[in-house]
Write a structure and sequence with these properties.
80% of the residues lie in helices and 0% in strands. The model has no long low-confidence stretch (mean pLDDT 86). The protein is built from 5 helices and no strands.
């Protein structure tokens, strides 16, 4: 659950969450338009299914468009889907890598601070530092 919250926080912070929701809204609008203009797409559910299959570039072929407007919408949905598939994971991974670098620097800084105050540390703290050094060497 903590990882999911962190992921949502990253998506919010980078603005990717807004882009993702705009994508979902675009798919829903495209589904409604396709339902209106395409004879084979009879329900909004069929339209959403078709848009999802097109956006993910799966293309099952169970539903297909025949009108010019339907084909244009399909092209837009597929391009938007490809962009989303590339962008969201890239942003999340990039942000997460930065997070790990910052966390590593903070950990190293705290460790170096303890090493600088070595004569002032208690026996238990010295033992803890010794254990960390042993783990680091492995």
């Amino acid at each position: 659950m903590k990882k999911l919250r962190r992921c949502i926080k990253v998506l919010k912070h980078t603005g990717t969450l807004k882009i993702f929701f705009s994508f979902v809204i675009f798919l829903c609008l495209a589904a409604v338009v396709l339902m209106i203009v395409e004879p084979q797409i009879e329900t909004v559910g069929d339209g959403i299914w078709y848009c999802f299959v097109s956006a993910t570039t799966i293309g099952f072929g169970d539903i297909y468009v025949t009108t010019r407007l339907g084909r244009i919408i399909t092209i837009l949905v597929a391009l938007y889907g490809i962009l989303m598939t590339a962008m969201v994971p890239g942003v999340v991974v990039s942000y997460y890598m930065e997070y790990l670098k910052i966390r590593e620097k903070e950990t190293i800084s705290a460790f170096l601070e303890k090493l600088e105050k070595l004569p002032e540390l208690s026996k238990e703290e010295l033992q803890a530092v010794s254990e960390k050094i042993k783990k680091f060497n492995k």
